[in-house]
Amino acid sequence: MTDSTDSLRPYVRAALELQGYEFSEEHIAEITLQFARIESIARIILPPAVDAEALPDLGPAPVFRP
Amino acid sequence: MNAAALDIAQRIRSGETTAASVLAETRAGIEAGDRALNCFTATTFERARSEAAAIDARRSSGESLPPLAGVPYAVKNLFDIAGVTTLAGARVNADNPAAATDAHLVARMHEAGAVLVGALNMDEHAYGFTCENTHYGATRNPHDPARVSGGSSGGSAAAVGAGLVPLSLGSDTSGSIRVPASFCGVFGLKPTYGRLSRTGCFPFVDSLDHVGPLARTVGDLAAAYDALQGRDSRDHACAQRDVEAVGITPLLPAGTRVGILGGWFQDWAGPAARRVVQMAAEALGATQWCELKSAAMARAAAFVITGAEGGALHREKLQARYADFEPASRDRLVAGSLIPATWVIRAQRARKVAYTEALQLFERFDVLLAPAAPDYAPLIGSETFKINGRTVPTRATLGVLAQPISCIGLPVCAAPLWPEPDGVNLPVGVQLIAAPWREDLCLAAAAVLERAEIAYAR
């Protein structure tokens, strides 16, 4: 486990419980790794990497239509 | 059978052969050739016999035949086929009742005279880029069986690449037509989001799911695309647009401006992928480089939206039957179901930013050129691969060049090139990308590469 996954693990554990999943601690660690991978890629669109101007408030998440 | 679909239809139309004979030859080819490749998860030869007989009867009675009369084809096993259970690559769907009716696009192919011969393998629930399916086996690359076919429409690409069928249908959420087309050496079209109806297709990520054809020639791809177009109010995303037929010999208008995408699309391209872009640029007369600066954001947005929507879609079954899900992707699906809503909203905004930037690029260019995959198809079982000094996970990264484009719904034709820098007999594809609803330009640009004899199926 890295620092990054350590910090995410409480969130993952709580979210899994909220969603009704029941996994062992070992398994929660594996899902945390997967979640950390998503987070590492998502970071570019999450604060503080992107400021408010770069992603303007477009109201509710827009339904995509070309 | 390496004959082009349009040649088959013409030979049937002229009486040189019959749909029944073509079907018999196709069946023999599948029975002999699929054992080594594992493209098919089901065959539908009884139905095919009936469809072929109907075509032959129509010809005998003097009727004019539809454009794909008697052409054998197969579909990714997430398309409903009446009488067949729609697997979507998953064991958890194997006990579902058989589909009552055909998917909309299967019905369109039937109207066009095509003959359905089976359902094709895929990554479970379309969540993967390798078509290594634990339940139904890996689909192997027709040019090197030790390598993956690509995914998730791996069966669709490999069956066409191996010449088992001249046409197939696949789906593309984040690259699932373009990546396997690139690896298996065939043409693939991911149309504009909303162009083709997804009614009767097992969903993955509703806001990103596209469907489209794969073929050995641009003419066949265009003919299938024309046959598939049309309104369908049952798919909320299907645009209410008239058919905009491209014809079987799409021509690139004089003065078409082709830009070469740099930045992200070169950073993630290995030597072979860079080489095919160079070959295509020379054939298209493209010299100007440009950049989609928000490509990384668009890729991130695709990743987040895919995780969240895919995770939410399968949450209940994951809770009830976790052990029956694909081991290679089930934890990613669970992790996706935990993504906070604020991330998804930011992803949708990032998507809009990238889309706006792309539209600005299309003020300067008509077609954009980029690699379709970072490198050649990796070996089956590869957990990681190296690209420009970075070691990255295979399953999640093979679509890195395709994801930013499907995230913003642009039409793309993947065309197979053969870089052969060191005698390697493997293809790598390029993406020919156009503004929304300009599939005609994507296909016409692919036709330029085909006429230059650098893009073709072997």
Explain this structure.
The complex is a heterodimer of chains A (66) and B (458). Chain A is an all-alpha fold. Helices cover 53% and strands 0% of the residues of chain A. The model of chain A has no long low-confidence stretch (mean pLDDT 82). Chain B is 39% helix and 16% strand. Chain B contains 15 helices and 17 strands. Chain B has helices spanning 5-14, 19-37, 45-60, 104-111, 154-161, 178-184, 218-228, 264-267, 271-284, 295-321, 330-336, 341-364, 394-397, 403-407, 439-451; strands spanning 40-43, 72-76, 115-120, 132-133, 137-138, 140-141, 144-148, 167-172, 187-190, 210-215, 258-261, 288-290, 367-371, 384-387, 390-393, 412-417, 428-434. In chain B, α2 runs antiparallel to α3 (45-60) and α7 (218-228) packs antiparallel against α15 (439-451). The longest helix of chain B has 27 residues, at 295-321. Chain B is globular and about 60 Å long. The termini of chain B are close together. The mean pLDDT of chain B is 97. Classes of the chains: A mainly alpha (66), B alpha+beta (458). The interface between A and B is large, with 34 and 42 residues.
Layout of strands and helices, then pairs:
The complex is a heterodimer of chains A (66) and B (458).
Chain A: H1 3-19, H2 25-42
Helix pairs in contact in A: 1-2
Chain B: H1 5-14, H2 19-37, E1 40-43, H3 45-60, E2 72-76, H4 104-111, E3 115-120, E4 132-133, E5 137-138, E6 140-141, E7 144-148, H5 154-161, E8 167-172, H6 178-184, E9 187-190, E10 210-215, H7 218-228, E11 258-261, H8 264-267, H9 271-284, E12 288-290, H10 295-321, H11 330-336, H12 341-364, E13 367-371, E14 384-387, E15 390-393, H13 394-397, H14 403-407, E16 412-417, E17 428-434, H15 439-451
Parallel strand pairs in B: 2-3, 2-8, 11-12, 11-13
Antiparallel strand pairs in B: 1-3, 4-5, 6-7, 8-10, 9-10, 9-16, 13-17, 14-15, 16-17
Helix pairs in contact in B: 2-3, 5-6, 7-15, 10-11, 10-12
